[in-house]
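Thread: Modeling a multi-component assembly for a lab meeting

Hi all, long-time lurker, first post. My supervisor asked me to bring a structural picture of a complex we are working on to next week's group meeting, and I have zero experience with this. I have the sequence lines for every component (553 residues in total). Could someone generate the structure of the whole assembly? Inputs are pasted exactly as I received them:
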Amino acid sequence: MAEGTKKPFSVREIREQFPALRQTVYGKNLIYFDNGATSQKPQVVLDAINRYYSKDNANIHRGVHFMSQKATTEFEEARIAIQKYLNAKKSEEIIFTKGTTDSINLVAFSYGELLKEGDEILITTMEHHSNIVPWQMLCERKKLVLKVAPINKKGELIEEEFDKLLSNRTKLVSVTHISNTLGTINPVKELAKKTHAVGAKILVDGAQSIQHMKVDVRDLDCDFYVFSSHKVFGPTGIGVLYGKEDLLDRMPPYQGGGDMISKVTFERTTYNELPHKFEAGTPHIAGGICLGEAIRFLNALDMDAIQRHEKELAHYAQDMLDTFEGVRIIGEAKQKTSVVSFVVDKIHPFDIGTLLDKQGIAVRTGHHCTQPLMDFFKIPGTVRASFAFYNTKEEIDTFIAAVEKSISILK
Amino acid sequence: MNINEKQQEIIDEFAIYDDWMEKYEYIIELGKELEAFPEDKRTDDRLIDGCQSRVWLSTEIENGNMHFRADSDAIITKGIIGLLIRVLNDETPETVAKTDLFFINEIGLQEHLSPTRANGLLSMVKRMKMDALKASVDAAKN
Ligand SMILES: Cc1ncc(COP(=O)(O)O)c(C=O)c1O
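Re: Modeling a multi-component assembly
Sure thing. I ran the full set together rather than chain by chain. Output:
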């Protein structure tokens, strides 16, 4: 869609499209600030789920009949919508997976097969467990070395240290685009350049970025980009691995089964071409189609306006929290998205989270699957409010009052 | 007062609160009043690690009855511990092992003892019951 055709952004109008936001919990209007964990779904996605199972349900890529053809077409159109949204060169470069975690495991297994003893994988301190553990497993399996680039107290990657750890032994850099705990935006385009200069590949964990900013994989020049549908307004159980075609071509299949084969005999099996080589078995067809719907929904929005709105929300919340005695914001990177993580002196995050819940506010507390990062900050966890474009300043006012009340009760 | 009367007493106490926040304010008060946990008992074998909060449990037998002491780094968890201890302490091992803790559901705190809420409380109750079971087996032997 051309830039000019985008509708002007209006929070009120957007909210109306998300039925889950219109409910009360414990007798209070729900305030949903747990978007980092998962997003709510717009009506168009809910309708697509209903339509698919009511009318179009059939297995794909194997049927001669009408419904199978239709489901196949819709599934492949979703792939193309995602390709265009990410500005990938070809739709074959879009692999459907179960989600971010699954995508990273696919790369860790399959790209990992191309690596040999002593090769190095480089990650950062702020990675999600999903971008740590698969590499640890790979390192054990293939006797590789895992290196971790450190961050500073503000929660920013220390680039000089990253540079020092990068060498011709590095074969893959795997880094989050945006930290789910801190909101830090990593300079992945720059990191890709540096990575390529030593002949290595770079995987960008986009779980927290695609819903907050325009992502252009060719502009970033990343070799892999991964994300989960459920965090970008689509259904759970489906996600994407983008990979450059020549690289995916060189990688062996991850799982064996139907759909991923070209010809099977008991002596020898040949594999299907991209993207099917990496999509063994019946995929999450409804999921793929509805993710396509979510991406079309996103594509019709003015992303610049959304980013401004989300930034404003985060600044507003952070500025107010900053005035509370004993509150410390965790993650103060210069480049940051709409995540506000904080701790309160002598009060456990779990206690604040529980009291906020009873006031109708959904936040997340704990380590957010980033335990090494919590160790770095020497805290057991944080309270995290993560905003989406459908959140409002009024909700933040209510949230701030609720935090204040919770602290006064807990003190 | 027997163990079920103690549970009923707690249910009655909570019945006066119709607002969730008031209920929690009371639990937090109980948490603040919980008997201090002896520092020499804060050892790793007494630690029950939950995903969210951590719990320490020390079990002793006093005059043939169970005597639990426990602590947590989260105050709400501590408040619920206070309630559990009030119900279970000074009861015989058999009673502790076989009692159904119905008051938890009645006062609406079951979410804190669900297997999906990893705050260590469910594991703590399981360990309390195991300790009681062991004590009753030991008592039968003697
Ligand atoms: C940065 C980051 N990476 C990876 C993941 C894992 O995503 P999923 O659980 O959808 O596979 C998450 C989700 O919490 C995340 O925030």
